[in-house]
Every structure is written in structure tokens, then in C-alpha cells.
Amino acid sequence: MNLTLNVWRQPNRTAPGKIVEYHVKDISPDMSFLEMLDVLNEDLLHAGQDPVAFDHDCREGICGSCDLFINGRSHGPEKGTTTCQLHMRKFSDGDTITIEPWRASAFPVNKDLSVDRSAFDRIIQAGGYVSVNTGGAPDGNEIPIPKEISDRAFEAATCISCGACVAACKNASAMLFVSAKVSQLALLPQGQPERKTRVENMVAQMDKEGFGACSNIGSCAAECPVGISLENIAILNREFLAAKATSNNLA
């Protein structure tokens, strides 16, 4: 396939960016989207030009690094698929593809298509964990958990923190991401000791990072590559209201 690519180029955080048109030829339909970008970068290097910066790591749909906005959709046109697992057979010869970084004030652009998603890390650091004493790891089956509960917790835990929910939301809200992390631990007995402080601290950090409010449109869940459910946002809201109603923190 021969394709026209409209790629966002931005040299650094403070410099203005713009869309630049490129052409790639002889792209195999069996290539992944990132492999197609590799071909583009090889062409640019051979021409003595600066390659396009983009985030990637495992290229197996696990790490959540491949955060690209493709033709106006997070991770591209295929539902339930990360950018690295999107194949070029989803496009046709002669297509024009627009490629942009995530658009959110909490995700500043580092360079070109690469954004800084460390805001997610700081939200997790605020409370997305279970405090344990150091030592030997406890047996995985030491605490009996009903299968229904373990399945729901596992589904929430599949969030790969890619940020597609933020990019898809018109408010750039991080509620789906935060709710998945809160729900995962709130459903399990191991997460009960810090249940109230966890949701308070994570929501406070989310607001501090500058993410927008949730307006229940559902675009986040529709574009999530691993299918995180909107039900988790309802769980987060209940957890937060319950925590605030019984909290000593009146702020």
C-alpha cells in the first residue's frame, strides 16, 4: 500500500507544533501500525531528517506505551486494540492517515507523538497500592475470595494505563483509569484497611493534575483497548461519597 501520513511534529514542550505530510510506499498489510512508523522513520533518516518520536515498548498490547490518536480515535479504528496491535490491513491503498499525540493538558507533549503520562504515576503513588510489611510474599490463596468478586477485581486490574480514556474524553477526564485502580482494590479484602484514604487521595491527586470532570458520555469505555467498564466509575463515586461522609478530612 501507498499511504499519505499527516503527522504531528513538535520539537519540544514549549515550541509550537504543526501537522506535516509524509508519504510511505510499499507498506505490507501485515505490518503493525508501529512497524509502518518504523518504515517512515527509516526513510526520514536516509533523507537526513529528524525521525518521528513516538512511545512504544512491548509491542504486544500489554504495556500501554503506544499512545497514538489515529484519524480522531484513540489507538485507531479497531475496537479493543492497542496501536501496536493495530495492523495496516485495517487501512486501504491510497488512504490518508492523521496521527496525533494524546490531547490533554495533564499529558504535555514531550516531542512529536510522545507525551508525558507521569500524572498517572503520581495518582497511583497517592494511593493506588496496598501497604504490606516487607518479608516473604503471602500465599496467593491464603484469603478465600468468591469467584464473582475476584473476576470483577481482575477485570478492573486489566487496565494498562495507556491514557486512551483521557484522550477520548471531551473533558480529558481520568475517571475511568482512577476508577479501575480504586475498584480493583476496593473489591478485595486486602484493600480494605486503606479503602477510605485511598479513594480520597487518588481523587485529590487526579484533580491536582488538571484532568477534567466526568460527564458520563461513555467515550472512555468505548475506546478503552482492554474494555474497562463504566461500572467502575459508579463504584468510584460510591467509594468517594462513603469516604467523605465518614472522613476526618473535611477539606
From TrEMBL:
PROSITE patterns found in the cross-reference section:
2FE2S_FER_1, 4FE4S_FER_2
Cofactor(s) the protein needs? [3Fe-4S] cluster; [2Fe-2S] cluster
Superkingdom of origin: Bacteria
Taking every annotated instance into account, which residue ranges of this chain make up the domain 4Fe-4S ferredoxin-type? 150-180
Return the similarity comment: Belongs to the succinate dehydrogenase/fumarate reductase iron-sulfur protein family.
Q: What's this protein's name?
A: Succinate dehydrogenase/fumarate reductase iron-sulfur subunit
Native organism: Hymenobacter ruricola
